[in-house]
Amino acid sequence: MELITPAFGLIFWQTLIFLVVLFILGKFAWKPILGALKAREESIEASLRMAENAKEEMKNLKSENEKLLAEARADRDKMLKEASRLAEEIREQAKHDAKTIGDKMIEEARTSIENEKNSALGQIQDQVVELSLQITEKLLKKNLADDKAQQGLVKDYMKDIKLN
Fold it and tell me: DSSP label at 29?
């Protein structure tokens, strides 16, 4: 029975040793252990807060990146439209300039042709006049070679003069 019911001395010494160990642990071990646990708990909470903040920041950055990408796409589309519009304007301007230059060249060619034609006509007229004068001179020399023909011509001119 001694094993089932311990003696008073054994209980006394066990209680005294327990209280001494408890006092020593309380004095030297519990405070550092509790401090370490508290510090560990605070660092875990801080880490969780930092993780939550990082998660929020990532969401913000992601939405900001999406917004920037949308703006960049819009700018790119705007720039492409502007470039297309400018290219079309340049093409139209080039067509207009080419047409203007072509019209000018055609007009200059027409003017040049007209000038050459007038010059040629003038030369032809000069030649016709000269030939006519030569023919007339030869005819007059031939017809008026004798005095009788000259007198007849003068009489004809006189009749024309009186009639007018």
Answer: I
